[in-house]
């Protein structure tokens, strides 16, 4: 065949030699193999060349059992869960310098199971290195880390003296109830914002959060600014200083005041505020409080969202709060307009005839009012509302509104249910709050217990209120023991509940199972 000519076809009858890969014999064991620069097979190469030589097989890591963080030398502490990517990154950093010195590259790493109480963390590394004239060899290498328990600086100060705090967040709201703090407590638990607090103490009008670091307190303040309209002031006090090294130690105080407007409050807007808000009101209901206040005109279904900075311009107060709600009986309901959805909530204008429950058997006073609850109320239902007809209010804006316009005698707020369940299939977690029993007023404990029960009732009635918090399954709930009066009584769907599992419970169950297995054997 001439050079450069095409090879003969398969069916041309010409002899075509088969092309085979060249092989050589291993210089050590004589096995046929593909040629390589070392002239050794893979088995002989691994037996005579160890790329893991010099790579440590044992190391140590420092762990703080109080805050679940690991020491990152020289002084940083990083939080990481068991067998998490964060923990894997912390452990691999301890091996970074030995691998770089030996010119060994890391192609992969994974955890190897170890007993939780063994104080050992095991890794399997996949190492790669170039050996003998360009041959790349890959090999696995086990590394065992011994976990040494040691408290970090902030936890050590807290253990020695809980009052050795560095920063405190003083959360306050000047209202006659604690409904806002009950809701904020659930938000803090869900997002873990209070987990780094040394302690949480109850105070008149709010809560105090003590931290061992200023950054932890600042993070809590930033979170509160995203879920509530707040006003913040900061201050610091010099504790000690070193004139030679110019090190100053301060105690920081963050004073956080929450806007005194709460959900379901009735507000009378001043003429200037009503005009600036596009003719809203003058009577409006607060329907939602996040980092802005949602104001609803129950007579026109207009909604306006007022931010905290804009609120400070008018600085209005609540004319009537939820503690002044009166129960009414709905005698008749007549829809005025079709049902509409505003900001995810449904409303319908309607005319309703209502009578106060306290007037039954005394007089025949009936009120015909306009309400935004036409889609929820039916004749015979109970409703909670504000009694403007017989209320004694000390509010200048309300007096001006009554003189300026013909306002309704009743503002209905929500549907009410006469009977409640004695037990619930769900429960809430609580923060470990320290109470000052010496300064607690008489009857304060009963009043707080009543407010907590009303908060649980609100969660059952309002699905929007449950979206931002976690509800857990109540293991003590028994359906046959629960009170099930009223078919229309709202309930929390079981799909919204979360299993309340703790590591301690799992360990106890495993120990019991192991003991039972040993007895069987």
TrEMBL record:
Biased composition (Acidic residues): 498-515
Stretches assigned to the 60S ribosomal export protein NMD3 OB-fold domain: 325-415
Family the entry assigns: Belongs to the NMD3 family.
Domain Nmd3 N-terminal: 26-258
Annotated Gene Ontology cellular component terms: cytoplasm; nucleus
Domain (60S ribosomal export protein NMD3 SH3) ranges: 261-307
Molecular function terms, GO-annotated: ribosomal large subunit binding
Function text: Acts as an adapter for the XPO1/CRM1-mediated export of the 60S ribosomal subunit.
Protein name, UniProt field: 60S ribosomal export protein NMD3
Keywords, alphabetical: Cytoplasm, Nucleus, Protein transport, Transport
Main location per the UniProt record: cytoplasm
Residue ranges, annotated region (Disordered): 498-521
Compartment(s) of residence: Cytoplasm; Nucleus
Example of a GO biological process term: protein transport
